[in-house]
Design a protein that fits this description.
It contains 15 helices and 11 strands. The protein is α/β, with parallel strands linked by helices. It has a domain at 9-244: Amidase signature (AS) enzymes.
């Protein structure tokens, strides 16, 4: 019996009890990769021997009666912008082909401490921006898997690994999770260290995770959270317990809010029809509000901040290796030079105003209900889809979660996104579990 399609939450007690070995699980995952990755292309680096050696070492720890971590024996995929001391990290660019970091990123160190098997590096778009890599959507290889965490989402969806780690600067976790029909979670800004992760925008870059269940993404997030002085966004106080949030009984039925967004016309008709049905199911648990006009240009402010900071962080690549950049990224970096310091400061001030507004919203509502993406994964691999339905929440650093609840006209998945208050990630998971239970009962 193969175990490659089981969730991490199902596998962990079996691994700890010795009912399933990590060696057998990794072997099952490698067999699935061998069968399907010729079409999916989720992996930038995969060393079967290295993966099996990790699994055997973890099995020996269990047999020797040594302490076991919370992710003992679970294979995890790592986006190829995250440093690994024993694997190359190439950032999706030929400029850094063969680059070998000297040490692990903090998230990789935490995974090792938790007993995870670092299975390999998953494909990213070029410098985690918008020029796609080679990955295709496991549901239909003619469609994009989304980006920039393309390989991480596709690897979980295709049954290659139960869990994967990615990053989000606009919509790079939530959108590919939606397109690939899995759970994706970007926790509150500052909960997971970015030390050792490619930096393109210090104000916007955030770490996120992928899994096949709500419990799985909560479990992985809990394993990665913690203070790290090497990341100035990291904070030194207690973090929400997401797994406890999944298990918690809602004291009262949660209240949801749907905002009429200025870019709502980008939502596909089939996605809109699915959300209309969801509105009917939720009834008076869901209220619709207009977004204040003062927040209508958040997308523009996000673009200014991202491009201004990306130009600074990728200055060496832009100046020394312009011919190895995609024409699209080269043009963006060139145009980014037009953003003045004053324009940038104005956009940062707008970020503070938006965060203050949403802090008030969550005094009355448990979560915002909103699309994860504009619809199904678009046809073709030349682009990764529109991130606009994620950008606002990333801009504010709010925790976001996509649930694979809808399907489009072509039979491809469409995610439903929930957004909660800053550092209320446990409340987000509790509300999501209530929603999943309610839909099962309806």
């Amino acid at each position: 019996m193969s175990h490659h399609l089981e969730t991490a939450s199902e596998l962990i007690p079996k691994l700890r009890a010795g009912e399933v070995s990590s060696e057998d699980l990794v072997r099952d995952c490698l067999a699935q990769i061998k069968t399907t990755d010729g079409a999916v292309h989720a992996w930038a680096h995969l060393d079967e021997t290295q993966a099996m050696d990790q699994a055997r070492a973890l099995d020996k720890l269990r047999r020797d009666g040594r302490p076991l971590g919370g992710l003992h024996g679970i294979p995890v995929g790592i986006k190829d912008i995250i440093d690994t001391a024993d694997m190359p990290t190439e950032y999706g660019s030929s400029i850094h082909a063969g680059h070998q970091p000297e040490s692990d990123a903090t998230v990789v160190a935490k995974l090792r401490e938790a007993g995870a098997v670092i299975m390999g590096k998953t494909v990213t778009t070029e410098f985690a921006f918008m020029s796609p890599g080679k990955t295709a959507n496991p549901h239909n290889p003619a469609h994009t898997p989304g980006g920039s965490s393309s390989g991480s989402a596709a690897a979980v969806s295709a049954g290659h690994v139960p869990l994967a780690v990615g990053s989000q600067t606009a919509g790079s976790v939530i959108r590919p999770a939606s397109f690939c029909g899995i759970f994706g979670l970007k926790p509150s800004q500052g909960m997971i260290s970015r030390n050792g992760v490619l930096r393109t925008s210090e104000s916007l870059d955030q770490i996120g995770v992928f899994g096949r269940s709500l419990e799985d993404v909560a479990l992985l997030t809990d394993a990665l959270t913690g203070h790290d002085a090497a990341d100035k966004a990291s904070y030194a106080r207690a973090k929400p317990d997401l797994s406890a949030g999944c298990r918690a009984e809602a004291p009262v039925e949660p209240n949801f809010v749907w905002f009429e967004l200025p870019f709502a016309d980008r939502l596909a008709d089939d996605a809109r029809a699915g959300f209309d049905e969801l509105h009917e199911v939720l009834g008076d648990r869901l209220e619709t509000l207009a977004l204040p006009e003062s927040l209508g240009n958040i997308i523009d402010h996000h673009r200014v901040i991202q491009q201004y900071e990306m130009r600074r962080h990728l200055a060496r690549e832009f100046e020394d290796s312009p011919d190895q950049l995609s024409p699209f990224l080269h043009d963006i970096l060139r145009q980014a030079g037009d953003h003045s310091d004053e324009h940038y400061a104005h956009s940062l001030a707008a970020m503070d105003s938006a965060k203050a507004f949403f802090a008030e919203v969550f005094n009355d509502y448990d979560a915002i209900l909103t699309p994860s993406a504009a619809g199904e994964a678009p046809v073709g691999l030349a682009a990764t889809g529109d991130p606009v339905f994620c950008t606002m929440w990333t801009f504010c650093g709010l925790p976001c979660l996509t649930l694979p609840l809808l399907n489009g006209e072509q039979g491809l998945p469409i995610g439903v996104q929930l957004v909660a208050g800053l550092e209320e990630d446990d409340r987000l998971c509790r509300s999501a579990q209530w929603l999943l239970n309610s839909l099962d009962e309806s």
